[in-house]
Amino acid sequence: MSGDPCDRCETLLQDFLDRTLTNLEWAEAEQHLAGCDYCRRRYHFEETLRRYVKSSAAERMPPGLMDKLEELRGLDATA
Amino acid sequence: MSEPEPATEARRIATEARDRARFEEEALALADQVYRVARRLVGSREEAEDLVQETYARAFRSWRSYSPGTNMRAWLLRILTNLNVDRGRRIQRTPQTQVLEETDYYLANKVASAAGEEALEQDLVVERLSQDSVVNALADIPPQFRDVVVLVDIGDFTYADAAQILDIPIGTVMSRLHRGRRALKQRLADEAVS
Predict the structure, then answer these.
(1) Alpha-carbon separation of residue A34 from A31, A43, A50, B9, B51 (angstroms)
(2) Which domains does chain B have, with CATH numbers?
(3) Distance in angstroms (rounded) separating the CA atoms of residues B105 and B172
(4) Binary contact (A52, B134; C-beta < 8 A)
(5) CA pair distance B134, B108, nearest whole angstrom
(6) What is the C-alpha separation between B29 and B32, in angstroms, rounded?
(7) What pLDDT, on a 0 to 100 scale, did the predictor assign at position A68?
(8) What is the mean pLDDT of chain B?
């Protein structure tokens, strides 16, 4: 591995959290994270951020919409 | 060619009515999840409601083209994203902000330099970012990136589902997702440190 190990770890961040790394890359990230507080904190932050983005973006269906959708039942291509 | 027996024809009609009712019920059970994605793809609640209604109207009209046993949520979202693009209703902020290629630690680094390294470990992100700022930041990233981020990170679709829904290669899903998330963090950074 060449270059700065923290830069390398940063490039693995998204795929690590998405669980799409190869076994080799996974082991590489795990090994680096075990010894690097700087990267470990940033991985933790990213994980927390993702959860927060998801919960912040979730908006429930407005009341009344379901009734409108129910009314669409039975629509036909010929209608 | 002979006409079908009346009894056979009646049975066929009954079977079809039952299949159709089952399809409609399955689709309606997904409405809340469909709305959740729709709401983040368009600018207002009214537009999201319209889009979801148009999606269901089309889905109910073309229910025969759905293959039972396949992913109905992805099938509905495919209809929805196509309608959304056709109607040109995707949130399009002007002037189009440039996607800078900030790295993945960008936002974390900003928070750390403003509040200290420890802030990254205590879930301070919640205190520093309002829910509105997250919603605004999502609305502010370019639409082709936003579609993918919303489908995967808000809608919980797999890369493969997102590729199928948007009719783009899976590699394109991954690169747009990565860039979209970085663009999102870049927009959140301004708020996080203010």
Answers:
(1) 5, 12, 22, 69, 47
(2) 6-86 (1.10.1740.10), 106-192 (1.10.10.10)
(3) 22
(4) yes
(5) 15
(6) 7
(7) 96
(8) 89
Cross-chain CB nearest to A69 (options B45, B53, B131): B53
The 10s digit of each residue's pLDDT in B26-74 is 999 999 999 999 999 998 999 999 999 999 999 999 999 999 889 999 9
For the stretch A24-79, pLDDT in tens is 999 999 999 999 999 999 999 999 999 999 999 999 999 999 999 999 998 875 54
Inspect the interface and report whether the beta carbons of B117 and A65 lie closer than 8 Å: no
Cβ distance of B57 and A72 shorter than 8 Å: yes
Question: B175: distance to nearest CA of chain A, Å?
Answer: 11
Q: How many CB pairs under 8 A join A and B?
A: 111
Q: With a CB-CB cutoff of 8 Å, which residues 155-194 of chain B face chain A?
A: 159, 177-178, 181, 184-185, 188
Provide the CA A70 distance to its chain's centre, in angstroms: 33
Mutate to test the interface with A, among B120, B140, B178 (most CBs of A within 10 A): B120
Residue A78 located in a structural domain: no
Q: Residue A48 sits in which domain range?
A: 5-71
B150 touches A19 (CB < 8 A): no
**Structural domains counted in chain A:** 1
Specify if A76 maps to a domain.
no
